[in-house]
From TrEMBL:
Any single GO BP term: translation
InterPro entries listed in its UniProt record: Ribosomal_bL33 (IPR001705), Ribosomal_bL33_sf (IPR038584), Ribosomal_zn-bd (IPR011332)
GO molecular function, one term: structural constituent of ribosome
Family, as annotated: Belongs to the bacterial ribosomal protein bL33 family.
A GO CC term assigned to this protein in UniProt: cytoplasm
Entry protein name: Large ribosomal subunit protein bL33
Record keywords: Ribonucleoprotein, Ribosomal protein
Keyword DNA-binding: no
UniProt key word Ribonucleoprotein: yes
């Protein structure tokens, strides 16, 4: 059972990515590229 989640930049709060994850795992925290900040930042699950 997978769930679609949105990833939000922690610095500028822009929604940049969508991905899927297992419902049983902990929340996602990934370092992804943010177009608005123009650098790699931490993105958290919304």
């Amino acid at each position: 059972m997978r769930k679609i989640v949105t990833l939000i930049c922690t610095e500028c709060k822009e929604r940049n990515y969508t991905t899927s994850r297992n419902k049983d795992t902990s929340p996602l925290n990934l370092r992804k590229y943010c177009k608005r900040c123009r650098k790699h930042t931490l993105h958290k699950e919304k």
